Structures are given as structure tokens and as C-alpha cells.
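C-alpha cells as discussed.
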């Protein structure tokens, strides 16, 4: 008799369903948050514990093995250029749908519960003091160990790339250092597999707390906004990424099926950080060189937030329509520029999407108080935009590998062709 084995995606989905059920049954009961939040927090802490060691060790191994600084500089320029192009498409799509469908018409905030957003206001004030020059200067750390402690990914990447180039430059003397980080990388991926065994419990706890706090009433009250955001994100995921994937020689449905476990986990936890190590590992298996994967994906977590900027564009127009503010073409063009800048400059600030929205609304004369009324459904929309953010960064590794002429198409197709029809159907 064949032993039944439940896959990771099934386990996570089961945790998701049970979490929703527990949250719905005990809606409004503070005991749910008291007992389940520590379990969810424990899972998130386990993931955060291993992210930086994996990024540092993988980047050193990849860059040191890749060779010269000229190649890394070219890769960096192409990566940022690609991210900016895709981000622009996301913003334009958000503005197009917002102008065509008018999600804010007929919505009256007097009927909705107001949520405290003081924490985001404070973050926006702090971030607003930072100029564009300061943002770029911040990439270069004054103290690498301080950046490690703060989890400042861009500063960590900057130092690590330079260090890896130094290891490569000293030749034979650098081999012991390279061997150490190769072993570290392999050991950390083993730790990832151990941590992922508790992922279903983390998903169960985090979803249970979310549903028990917000319930379904908040979703229904602002349903038009939520539905539009989900439609826009789905369109971007299947159509825009579908076109990008086709240009890179990847079928988007097969690609989504390939990373379905990671997408489901990211959706459940509203955090793409939880799957960073596994996504990096899978992109290597699909034919992307370690040097490109370990460089492109961590940078994308800060610079390539396609789902977030798409949501921000729609939310801005939604609030403008609620307040009866007619934004001119010039104002909407300035909105594109502001979103492109602020989404990068504030990427490391907690509550990024709300902070960026606060900064954006002030520049075009929309009252920021409106955010307090949509805060209740933000987590529901955050789950979907995290999926798009994650897919965009994973796909970027394939695109940049293809652009650099280093993508192993045969290896990639062989890996994707292992998927059965049921896997592809589940991802769609």
C-alpha cells in the first residue's frame, strides 16, 4: 500500500483554511490574537534569522565565482533599468484602471470605521526628511555590522559585492574564504528546509489573527476597491508577466506552478521575505546562475515592488474620487514620478505601502486622513500584492540571466516539464 504524503503546498493551504475558520468562529475575541500571534511571530522570526546569512553567503559565492567588477556593474545597471520599466507599467496600469472604473465614486467614509494610522504618519515624517541624494548615500554602509543588525539589505548587498570582488581578485589566497561561504550557503539552505516544516503552523496562526481582528465586514464595506486591486494584480500577474515570460522563453503558468508553494506562503503571511531563500534556490534549479540570482532577487526586494506600486496608484485615485478631486493629466504624470521615487526611497521603512501613500497624497493635494478608512482592508490587499512582488522578482532573475546570455534554457525547460497538469491548474 502506497504511503500518502501531503505536499508543502497542501499543508500550507490546509493551515490557511483552518486559520480562516478559527478567525471567523472567534471573530472579535482577543484570545485568538493572544494565543496565535506568538506562533506566527515565531515563524517570521525564524525566517528573518536565516535570510541575511543566505543572501551574504550566496552573493559572495556567486559574485566571486562570476569574476570582474565590470560584469557586475553591467548587471546592476541592467537590473535597475528593467525594474524601472516594469514599475512604470505597473503604475500606468493602476492609473488606467482607476480612471476607467472609478472605484471611489459613491463611497462615503462617514459609514466606515476609522483605523489609527499614527505609526505610519510618524514613519512618513521621518522618511520625508530624506532626500534622493541621502537615499543613494544610504546604500553605502558606514558600518557593515550595524547594517547587518538593522537588516538594511541594500547596504548589505553593497558591502558584500565589494568584498566578493576582493576575494576574487586575490586568487588562490581567497579560496579558503570562498570555501567557507560555500559551506555556509549549503548549511543555511539545510536550515531553510527545517524551518519550512513549521510553515503551515505559522500560516494558520497569522491568518487566524487577521480574520479574527478584521472579519469579513471590512472587506464588504470597501469591496469595490478590494475587487479592483485584486483584478489589477491578477491582470498584471498573468498578462504583463505572461508577455515578459514569453520574451524570456518561460510559460507563465508553468512558472507560477513551479513556485506555487512559495506564492501560497507569501500570500498567507503577506511577506515575500518568508520565501526568499527557497525562491533563490528554485531559480538556480531552473537554470539561472547563482551570481545573478543572489544579486537580482535581494535587490528586487527593495527596488522592484510591482504589486505595491500598482496598488498605490489605484488607492491614490480611489481617495481622490472619494473626496471629489479631479486629477489633471499633469498631476497624474507627477504622481507617476513621485511613486517611482518614493517607492524606492522608503523601501526599508516599516509599513512601506502606507508610508509611500502618505508621501504621495500630500504632493497632489489629497487629504491623508482617507487612509485611516482603508487601513482595515489593507492586509487583505497586501496578501495579493505580495504575490505579484514575489513573482516579479523571481521572473527578473530569469530575464536578467537571459539578457546576460547565461540562462540555461535546457535545464529550465526540463525542470518546468516535471510539473503535472494538476500543478499548472492549481497555480492558475
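Sequence:
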Amino acid at each position: 500500500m502506497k504511503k500518502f504524503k501531503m505536499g508543502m503546498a497542501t499543508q500550507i493551504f490546509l493551515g490557511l483554511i483552518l486559520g480562516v475558520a478559527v478567525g471567523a468562529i472567534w471573530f472579535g475575541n482577543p484570545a485568538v490574537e493572544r494565543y496565535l500571534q506568538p506562533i506566527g511571530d515565531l515563524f517570521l522570526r525564524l525566517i528573518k534569522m536565516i535570510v541575511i546569512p543566505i543572501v551574504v553567503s550566496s552573493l559572495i559565492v556567486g559574485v566571486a565565482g562570476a569574476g570582474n567588477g565590470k560584469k557586475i556593474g553591467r548587471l546592476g545597471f541592467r537590473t535597475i533599468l528593467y525594474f524601472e520599466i516594469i514599475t512604470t507599467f505597473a503604475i500606468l496600469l493602476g492609473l488606467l484602471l482607476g480612471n476607467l472604473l472609478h472605484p471611489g465614486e459613491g463611497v462615503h467614509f462617514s459609514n466606515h470605521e476609522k483605523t489609527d494610522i499614527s505609526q505610519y504618519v510618524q514613519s512618513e515624517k521621518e522618511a520625508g526628511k530624506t532626500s534622493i541624494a541621502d537615499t543613494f548615500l544610504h546604500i553605502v554602509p558606514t558600518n557593515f555590522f550595524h547594517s547587518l543588525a538593522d537588516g538594511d539589505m541594500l547596504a548589505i548587498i553593497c558591502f558584500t559585492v565589494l568584498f566578493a570582488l576582493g576575494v576574487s581578485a586575490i586568487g588562490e589566497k581567497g579560496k579558503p574564504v570562498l570555501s567557507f561561504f560555500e559551506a555556509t550557503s549549503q548549511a543555511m539552505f539545510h536550515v531553510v528546509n527545517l524551518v519550512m516544516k513549521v510553515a503551515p503552523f505559522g500560516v494558520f496562526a497569522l491568518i487566524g489573527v487577521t480574520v479574527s481582528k478584521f472579519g469579513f465586514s471590512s472587506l464588504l464595506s470597501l469591496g469595490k476597491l478590494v475587487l479592483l486591486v485584486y483584478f489589477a494584480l491578477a491582470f498584471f500577474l498573468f498578462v504583463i508577466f505572461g508577455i515578459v515570460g514569453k520574451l524570456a522563453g518561460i510559460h507563465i503558468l508553468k512558472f507560477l506552478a513551479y513556485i506555487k508553494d512559495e506564492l501560497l506562503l507569501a500570500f498567507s503571511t503577506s511577506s515575500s521575505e518568508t520565501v526568499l531563500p527557497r525562491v533563490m534556490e528554485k531559480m538556480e534549479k531552473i537554470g539561472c546562475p547563482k551570481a545573478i540570482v543572489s544579486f537580482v532577487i535581494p535587490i528586487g526586494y527593495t527596488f522592484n515592488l510591482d504589486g505595491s506600486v500598482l496598488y498605490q496608484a489605484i488607492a491614490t485615485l480611489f481617495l481622490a474620487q472619494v473626496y471629489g478631486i479631479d486629477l489633471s493629466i499633469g498631476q497624474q504624470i507627477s504622481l507617476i514620478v513621485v511613486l517611482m521615487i518614493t517607492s524606492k526611497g522608503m523601501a526599508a521603512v516599516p509599513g512601506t505601502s502606507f508610508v509611500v501613500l502618505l508621501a504621495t497624497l500630500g504632493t497632489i493635494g489629497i487629504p491623508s486622513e482617507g487612509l485611516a478608512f482603508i487601513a482595515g482592508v489593507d492586509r487583505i490587499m497586501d496578501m495579493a500584492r505580495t504575490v505579484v512582488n514575489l513573482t516579479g522578482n523571481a521572473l527578473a532573475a530569469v530575464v536578467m540571466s537571459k539578457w546576460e546570455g547565461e540562462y540555461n534554457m535546457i535545464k529550465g525547460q526540463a525542470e518546468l516539464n516535471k510539473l503535472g497538469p494538476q500543478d499548472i491548474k492549481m497555480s492558475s
